[in-house]
Amino acid sequence: MIKNLLILGILGVLIGFSAFSGCIRSGTGQLVLNITDAPGDLNITRVNVTISKVMVHRSAAVNNTTAGWEIIVNDSQTFDLISLINVKEFFGSANLSVGMYTQIRLTVESCVITVNGTEYNCTVPSGKIKLIKPFVLMPDQTITLTMDFDVQKSITEKGNNKYTFNPVIKVIRD
Length: 174
Prior knowledge:
Elements: H1 2-23, E1 28-37, E2 44-58, E3 68-73, E4 77-80, E5 89-97, E6 99-115, E7 118-123, E8 128-137, E9 142-149, H2 151-154, E10 155-159, E11 162-165, E12 169-173
C-alpha cells in the first residue's frame, strides 16, 4: 500500500510538472532602450559619453536552459548627456527570446566633458557598467527601459583639472 501511494505521489508530481511546463511559452519579444539625464547644477556644459556595447543577461529558467548574454547595441554611439536633460533619446533595440533577464551591461569607451569652455578627458575606471534591473519578456511583448544618468553624481573632480566618470544610472521601465 505504501508502495502504491509512493507511485501515485510520483505520478502526481510528474503530471503537475508537465501541466506547468505546458504553460511556458516560447517565442520572442522586443527590448527598447532609451537614454536620458537627470538635471544637475554643475559648471559642466557638455558630457560626451561614448558607449560601444550594450548587453542583457538571460538567466536559465524552466523554459530556457541556455543562460547567456544577448547583444542589444554593438556599435559606438556618443551622447551629450547634458543635452538629454529631461529628454529621452532612442539608444537601441533588439528582438530577444522570451525569458527572465537579470542585468544590463554597458561598455563605456570614453567620456569627455566641457567645463567653463575647456574640454577634459574623464577617467572611466572599469569601462564597464553593470545595471541590475530584472525583467521578464513575454512573447510578442515590447519592454521599454530608459537609462537615466545622473551627471552631477557621476562626475568627480580629482584636482588639477582631472575628472573621473563613475556613472550613476537609474533604470526606469516605461
